[in-house]
């Protein structure tokens, strides 16, 4: 089978950078692709902005051919080219750890409904293989009915004749420069030869050794606690459809799992860790740092933001409560991976990375290049004319492309072995 890819919610091209092991671009700004994945179509559209910076960046690096900049809901799914692999980091605002629990909307939220666009594409195009990425909180969403949203997704895949494997991966545990936890979902048609092969293994063999994720990101089998094992059949009578599941379904999903023919087995696994990169390893050597140093006003604001607090606040209904927050270091250690980068990076925000310049001893923001390197993008990937604030936003919204690069040779084997 030819390795043809459709990339949804493409952003600035993270899946493509990872699959094609892109580490640089030429003098014309075009990416130098070092693998043989053909991207036959990509869609990127941001409804909240007039200027489409992500799409423009994607086109700068890959050209404009076969790249769509319209609302995916308006796309005639039958006109999407045939492909062997559908990929996408579907928008995750409704599950994001940046939202409060009372504010999360889950699969019913405005952005969460984009999953149904994926479902519609799979129904029309019957993509043989699918690779998706989302925040790990998806497994527990919503807070008042844990696991409902992910259960509905699994049921939807099952109804469309797919089997599924998932794994929560913390990039720092596998050698990267960011403590970024994301759930990766791999689905395949039950008509594929890969399905026939993987079903020769039992559930534990798939999760611990033979599945896609275990091969790319090995498990510390000796330290996997067998008590955190969970089994559920999402096709039983009380869940006659996803509407019934919306009302009734609840389940504790662990960080690794597989669904075969509607039967779900999942368990808590422990990674066989690699030595991570540190922030020190990705420092920007080429940028004038002066604009990134904090002034006295910013220093004072960050001191307050990162300190402990206990504040009396008022709920919308008028009741009062104490909001408490623990302190955190006034700066981020260079001898550790970075924390999870958010779209608000380099703003006056508690989550913003602050590092100490070793030559001057002054505190500063990370540079756009350092943000790109935290996500394993080539230096200056987003330096395509967009404002600096948007460069940070693009990286906070992206994935660690190195995760996809590690998966790539195993995905390649799977698809090349299909007739």
Can you walk me through this structure?
- Helices cover about 25% and strands about 20% of the residues.
- By secondary structure, it is an alpha/beta fold.
- The chain has 2 domains: about 5-275 and about 400-415, Rossmann fold (3-Layer(aba) Sandwich); about 280-365, no CATH class.
- The strands form 3 sheets. The chain has a 10-stranded mixed beta sheet with strand order 3-2-1-4-5-7-6-9-10-8, sandwiched between helices.
- Strand 13 (about 355) and strand 14 (about 365) form a beta hairpin.
- The longest helix is centred in the last third of the chain and has 16 residues, at about 400-415.
- The protein is globular, with a radius of gyration of 22 Å.
Summarize this, please?
The chain has about 425 residues and is α/β, with parallel strands linked by helices. It is built from twelve helices and 14 strands.
Count structural domains. Answer: 2
Distance between the termini: 5 Å
Strand content: 15-25%
Low-confidence stretches: none
Seen as an oligomer or otherwise, the chain set is: single chain
**So what's the overall shape?**
globular
Largest sheet data = 10 strands, mixed
